[in-house]
Design a protein that fits this description.
The structure is a homodimer of 477-residue chains. By secondary structure, the first copy, chain A, is of the alpha+beta class. Helix content of chain A is 35%, strand content 29%. Chain A contains 14 helices and 26 strands. In chain A, strands 3, 7, 8, 9, 10, 11, 14, 22, 23, 24, 25 and 26 form a twelve-stranded mixed beta sheet that branches. In chain A, strands 17-16-19-20-21 form a five-stranded mixed beta sheet, sandwiched between helices. A three-stranded antiparallel beta sheet of chain A has the order 4-6-5. Strand 5 of chain A pairs antiparallel with strand 5 of chain B, so a sheet runs across the interface.
């Protein structure tokens, strides 16, 4: 929590920059004595809370929040063969309670299908119980053997939102998939984070799903970060866990299901997408402090200025803004440095000249300065925050669009992948994808791409030349 | 989630009543396939969220929220000898990650001292860093071998608020103990739950504490439920984990610490203390629905009434109230039953006569009916909710005061313990407490009792007759 000065590593070395910002901007402490487990600093946790409050408010339109146990008995966990196969290397097992071995081993949930669906089997009786749409925000666990990284690859995912819905049939579940994708799009728009949606190839879908739609963001170095998934589960799990209902004609039918997850990678995306060489750049929608007021004390008018600052603070707070005044006895420049590092969207300065001219000097986090009249300050400040949000979204969109490159040869693909996501055509055969991935050290992210910067069309497969469709290729975190 | 009718078990059989209310009022499902782990229904979880939002708002006055990992390495966990001895029978151990045994076993936190304090040792450097006051709301785990019960004795405590503070010296930490007790008292006053505070005897204090202050509520059957604890940790843990700071004179000093916990037993207290033979009785401060509007449709004025109901609902919502309209096509009586079972503090009826007379008929959950003018309805409704809160608090206070019995003989103690908490005098010797506990099948809860119904004074020990002090004796959940 001690403040450090000196320049941050350049964004061009993204990993170094990210690790340093996470630390200096009080997001997480990486010194916890277990690999892959991190401690949230209060500032980071406040950012986390505002972000999940936003996500909850979107979900609460048609879902209800609930909470299921962390521990899943091995007997339930092992029921869905495909699912367990997908997770068996990653599950933490509790084997002892006190000094005694347990009769049945307990898994720490890596995700909660096998905890929730046995209960859904009890809860779903009739078509009148459907659709059922619940979600929870929980800690989940993966025994990651790869390189771990705060918010991105953790052994304890501290903030996993998982939604689990049940429907009368496949089509209704499919509508829900679209609904959840819309919800995720709205969420990320509020965070100013542009996304690309695509359908993961079959070998990369969620274990036990009919198909997986994934949401990717692009990092400063052109690598992708998967920041959300929506899975159409069909009736795989409802078959295994016997989730059936009586339809209008009195017949027993198998239900169809979806699940949808967003983890604290959404915070990683906020940090990585918007940040700059001065530190965090937070969207006002989730910034723990939206406005910082800096009194500029020169000469003898200190008291007068502090009274004006207090009045301004309470006015802005009354308008629902999250405001702090930094009245510490230090140079304004050092204060600017501190609040810029922490990404505060708007700084408001109030000094003698502003007092005399009934004005306020505002600087947003992108460095754009505006002088506003003191009268109706709350209204002007809100407008400036909205404008700042548009500016960071524009900047992020520009970054994304300039890092999408369409290629037709493996050579060009390889070259472009150094700093970009690459758009190719692909015939749909796994053999061709395998070959492309091997030749370019990348992943075929998906098809059916939804992005205003990518045309989803037909073309010859980049490997075999047969008829193909648009596909995304990238290197992923 | 299916509604059931028929009378609840009588409150005189508290256990039966409690289990049935938990189920029928959609608080928790006990059918999860692991003993001692339960599933929150959405309604119960909404109650949980409002309750913890209240608790957080009180804590946020001078604490900051944070989040530490669930998993604690055995090496850290084992450092504080007294502490581990207190928990060794209750800790769940993770021994495997995927298919491989772990090098260092990981404990699921039963409480977080051993996770947090190694980090505090890194964070606390100077007197300027103190006091440090953080809290988290997390799931914790105890391998309970006793009879488990939803919200009261669980293997996964899903909602444990734990505060951990660090101070320059013992006295400052002691002030914090008093502050936390005041905070807990305010919290329970907002829940309408009367409490008794006492200092636990030395053999019953938190493992590693200088002393433990406990907060008890009294259940309908006169048994006690511990619903909060504040521990003065002195420098036990700061010695073990090396939490030191440089004082104003540049000398290294050991810090002094406190911790403070409130679990989901606070929800159990709400349910148990206020409930009646019709079901839950919720305080408006945390009720997921504070007001339910029931349209009374008779004759041909259905549309007119529904329009008036909609207008009323939006008016009440605009005033910040949590309101639902129950427009289902069923008898009003069945609706009353449903909302009474779920503890909604106020029911507002709106029928043709009310429309004609510009009035609303209100019934609070204790059955008290009031007719209010339609004009300024929100204001009247808020007043009725405040009155209802006073009424449930009064009722609960009366229950508590009438279940506190002062005795001077072991025989009387035994008799009174059947339905009460008992006030005795005790000399302070463990031998006398052991004897009393054995003869009465009870626990000596504590001394230094703080309650307006108990006089803390001197008197002869109930066992040995020597000079003693007031002590509480009870049977506990």
């Amino acid at each position: 929590m001690a403040e450090e000065t000196g320049a941050l590593p350049s964004r061009s070395d993204f990993s170094a920059w990210y690790n340093e910002v996470i630390r200096r901007a009080d997001i997480m402490d990486v010194r916890y004595p277990v690999k892959g487990l991190y401690v949230w600093y209060p500032f980071g946790f406040a950012l986390r809370n505002h972000t999940y409050t936003l996500l909850r408010s979107l979900l609460n339109r048609d879902h209800e929040e609930t909470l299921f146990p962390l521990l899943i008995p091995e007997t339930e966990f092992m029921k869905e063969a495909e699912h367990i196969k997908g997770f068996e290397d990653e599950v933490y097992w509790v084997t002892h309670g006190g000094l005694s071995p347990l009769d049945v081993k307990l898994a720490l949930r890596p995700t909660s299908e096998t905890a929730i669906y046995p209960m859904y089997a009890l809860w779903v009786r009739s078509h009148a119980d459907l659709p059922l749409k619940l979600y929870q925000v929980v800690n989940t666990f993966r025994y990651e053997t790869k390189h771990t990284r705060p918010l991105i690859r953790l052994r304890e995912i501290t903030s996993f939102m998982e939604s689990h819905t049940v429907h009368t049939d496949w089509d209704d579940a499919n509508k829900q998939v679209e609904y959840e994708l819309g919800l995720a799009s709205e969420f990320y728009r509020e965070l100013g984070v542009p996304i690309i949606i695509s359908r993961r190839p079959d070998w990369d879908k969620f274990p036990g799903a009919d198909f997986t739609m994934a949401i990717d963001a692009v990092m400063p170095d052109g690598r992708t970060l998967q920041i959300g998934t929506v899975h159409h589960l069909g009736d795989h799990f409802s078959t295994t866990y016997n989730i059936t209902y009586e339809d209008v004609n009195g017949e027993q039918k198998l239900a169809s299901q979806t699940c949808f997850g967003i983890s604290e990678r959404c915070i990683a995306a906020i940090i990585a997408v918007h940040g700059d060489d001065k530190g965090l750049v937070l969207p006002a929608t989730v910034a723990p402090t939206q406005v910082v007021i800096i009194p500029i004390i020169v000469g003898k008018r200190g008291e007068e200025i502090m009274a004006a600052v207090e009045k301004l603070e309470s006015e802005l707070k009354a308008a629902g803004l999250r405001v702090k005044t930094d009245a510490r006895d230090m140079r304004p420049g050092a204060k600017y440095y501190h609040w810029e590092l922490h990404g505060v969207p708007l700084r408001v300065e109030l000094g003698p000249r502003d007092l005399d001219n009934s004005q306020l000097v505002c600087a947003n986090r992108l460095g754009i300065k505006t002088t506003i009249p003191r009268e109706n300050a709350a209204e002007s400040v809100k407008r400036l925050l909205d404008e700042a949000h548009d500016q960071i979204l524009d900047k992020a969109e520009e970054h994304l669009s300039s890092h999408l490159k369409t290629v037709t040869t493996v050579e060009a693909c390889n070259e472009m992948l150094e700093e970009n996501i690459v758009v190719v055509h692909w015939c749909g055969e796994k053999a061709c994808a395998d070959k492309l991935e091997e030749l370019t050290n990348s992943s075929l992210l998906g098809t059916g791409v939804r992005s205003k910067y990518v045309v989803d069309d037909d073309g010859p497969c980049i490997i075999c030349g047969k008829a193909g469709k648009t596909a995304l290729v990238g290197r992923s975190y």
